């Protein structure tokens, strides 16, 4: 996963990969100790090791995203089902012009949510649990996404008592609610925490105050992962470059480094910071 400039999902040097435009020289690498079988088509790429699958895809720039998102997600789920990895537990979505409007005047994030909800409605997750997710802006048009799936069932969706489940948000946030869980627990293993922001119930808190948003976000995360210093693979998304230094230094005091920080738009225009990470298993 490259975060510099956008590119097509491809297998290169035996590794399936996707580049998304977040203007950062960060590369994210998912590794396994077992041999990986790779493959793909023009618009998706994947690799799998017998237990886990990684898959990445893109939705091209469109006047309405819902049909393309629905199609791309259904192709992804169909491919994973054919390969034998039907249990999707974590998805990342990078959405160009996320707060802009589509050809019908609907916010592109809400348009994306519509297509995603339709995909999950058409092919419900086999155990009924939606995956954990991240949904943030990207610096070029179109949508890049990647996901992790398992061959076996057994992961569980985790919600946050401080937040309404996103799939139950009221329709003031768009025609279809966001289909994701706050976190995904692997059996006996780690907790993969979704992008988390300054939302209590369904409402954004501290709309114009990045420091207070960060405080609320950390409190939301701490309910899922009481020891924040143990979080790994922490990624921090900040809307305004002017807030980056302060957010980064406060995060460095809370999390163990390295922390990857990105300046990009977020899915509600009043959100200024969003954080994801992985809490180690209790095993
Ligand atoms: C929120 O809690 C903030 O649409 O996949 C965080 C993580 C957010 C994932 C998504 C959106 C998504 O609603 C935004």
UniProtKB/TrEMBL annotation:
It holds the Pfam family FkbO_Hyg5-like_N. Residues 28-149 form the Chorismatase FkbO/Hyg5-like N-terminal domain. Coiled coil: none annotated. Gene3D superfamilies: RutC-like. This is Pteridine-dependent deoxygenase like protein. The gene is rapK.
């Amino acid at each position: 996963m490259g975060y510099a400039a956008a590119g097509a999902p491809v297998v290169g040097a035996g590794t399936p990969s996707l580049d998304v435009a977040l203007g950062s020289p960060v590369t994210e690498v998912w590794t396994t100790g077992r041999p990986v079988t790779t493959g793909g088509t023009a618009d998706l790429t994947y690799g799998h090791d017998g237990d886990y699958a990684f898959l990445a895809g893109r939705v091209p720039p469109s006047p309405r995203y819902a049909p393309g998102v629905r199609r791309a997600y259904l192709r992804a789920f169909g491919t994973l089902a054919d390969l034998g990895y039907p249990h999707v537990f974590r998805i990342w979505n990078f959405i160009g012009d996320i707060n802009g409007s589509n050809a019908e005047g609907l916010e592109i994030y809400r348009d994306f949510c519509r297509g995603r909800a339709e995909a999950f409605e058409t092919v419900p997750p086999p155990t009924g649990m939606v995956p954990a997710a991240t949904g943030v802006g990207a610096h070029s048009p179109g949508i890049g996404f990647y996901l992790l799936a398992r061959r076996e069932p057994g992961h569980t969706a985790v919600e946050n008592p401080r937040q309404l489940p996103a799939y139950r948000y009221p329709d003031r946030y768009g025609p279809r609610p966001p289909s994701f869980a706050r976190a995904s627990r692997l059996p006996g293993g780690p907790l993969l925490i979704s992008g988390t922001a300054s939302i209590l119930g369904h409402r954004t808190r501290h709309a114009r105050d990045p420091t207070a948003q960060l405080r609320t976000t950390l409190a939301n995360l701490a309910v899922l992962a009481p020891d924040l210093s143990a979080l790994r693979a922490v990624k921090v998304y900040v809307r305004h470059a002017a807030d980056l230094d302060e957010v980064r230094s406060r995060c460095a005091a809370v999390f163990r480094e390295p922390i990857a920080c990105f300046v990009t738009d977020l899915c509600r225009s009043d959100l200024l910071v969003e954080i994801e990470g992985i809490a180690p298993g209790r095993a």
